[in-house]
What we know:
It is a single chain. By secondary structure, this protein is mainly beta. It has four domains: 128 residues, Immunoglobulin-like (Sandwich), CATH 2.60.40; 110 residues, Immunoglobulin-like, CATH 2.60.40.10; 124 residues, Jelly Rolls (Sandwich), CATH 2.60.120; 134 residues, no CATH class. 9% of the residues lie in helices and 51% in strands. The strands form nine sheets. Strands 13, 15, 16, 28, 30, 32 and 33 form a seven-stranded mixed beta sheet that branches. It has a six-stranded antiparallel beta sheet with strand order 1-3-7-8-9-5, with no helix packed on it.
Amino acid sequence: MIRRFYAVGMFTVLFFFLLIPSAVSTQENDTKKKAGKEVSADLEKAEDRTDEVRPALSVSPRELDFGVISIGEGSRGSVVLKNAGPGTLKWSVIGPEGWTLLEDQRISGTLRDNTATVKIHISSLKPVLNDADTTADAYLVQMGIETDSRMNIYRKSLPPGTHKKVVKLISNGGTKAVTLRFELRTGEKEPLLVVTPPRIDLGQVDSDEQVAGKLMVTNRGREILRWRAACGLSAEPDTPTNTGRYVSFLNAGIKGSSSYVPPNHLKESLDISGRWLEKDGYPASQSPHHVMKYRFWGTGITVFFSVEPAGESISAYVDEKRTNALECKSGAHEASECLIAEDLPYGQHVLTVSSKKGHALIEGVKIYGIEVKRGSPGWINIFPDSGTTTRETDYVNIMVKSQRLNPGYYGEKIVFTSNGGEKVVEVSLEVTGDNKQRIIDVYRYVAGSDYLFTAHPETDAVLLQGRGYKKQGIAFRLFSPGTPGTTSFHGWYHPKKKGHFYSHDMRGEGKTLKGYVYKGVIGNIATSRLTNTRELYRWFNPATGSYFYTTDPKGEDSLKKGYRFDGIAGYVR
């Protein structure tokens, strides 16, 4: 009896456990059917959380200047969104705070390897005369935010003058804010302040020098403009700022020439290929085959540029990552800016820029991740610091005193206030110290398989001509003797092999120097990486016994000629 009861009980328990999965499965199916889109959304969220590293939202530019907007007129701009991390990036736009949204179309999207463009249009519609919350001087301003398929329209009453508004882009890869700047005008008679250029780079300065820059103040209105200028007081002296270091590509000494060449302080960091024309001292390109490379130390970089006709674009990327190249479109007002990369590991990087459409002019860059300090009180003098103007141009001198400044990067903001608006001009420079490093240009000459490097081609002119050497330009740059962290870079010549060998080691780094004749020192080379240096690679050809030196890690075209990698000879500029 007990056995029979036991058997029946076991059968019942077994049947019960077999029934449970079926019931649970049926319940789950019903739940999924009822939940529908909510369940799918949860699954997508769960899938996103499984990524080892989250997506990362990149937005460029982070600030848009729409210029002057008069009644009945408008101005357009756009920002580019990019997923700088793995997985799927889900993003959406939050409009400016305090504005009235007419209809919520939900501007949003998803990104993996592609990019998205958010277009913004701001226009001044009409005066507001019967609004209890505003004065008679307020004007109805409309802002449209759109993608390819949707648009949100916001409206707000604003008084004439300069305005800054913020639009936020939120995502599962972070939140970014874009600042919108515009000048609201009621008519052409009102004074309108214009200050050019918007940024000044004073280059490299010794700690006992004075250097000057010049600004132009003009009035685009008809009534009298009254203006005043002063240094910004946003930070304590000698303390770092987070605004970045501005570097201008301007070469004032070549204005009016046909071709662009970098200024002296950028020769070792700015390389150009193809023919870049000169326009007002800046590099200008008319072909997508013309490329510019700029080496920098930092964690990110922004490019300032303009393209004609307005609305055309340039292509830019960092560290040979062509798949992540950004297409940066120009705006209709002055120079545009485009954030190319951010949150990079601190170190040396290479920016590559080329024109994609239209005629591109590259003004300069801003580098992030380096310490930029303010000087002590009185380190910048502004004269005149005030004035009045109608149609004439006022010239404002900016005099910088570098005395008592420690070596490093410095920046300041010159704030212009007036009855015709406000403008801010950035001033930047590098203080190099009393003993500024002197960089030596080293030229490469070739005759057959023999490569000769010299810092004094004029002294070696007889030798170069007698052996039929052909000049190939500047190969790299060495340091002057006595530069800390460097040592002599020696040269030898083998008459039978007709080839040169170079090394920082008088013993030849373990290689045989039999048959070589010592030629002397061509400069100083770093044996370990210093700031703003790069590798000088050595290549060897077993068939000819000749050596080749280059800063190109791929060896230029030496592999095709039978050369093989032979190590790093040192670090150069």
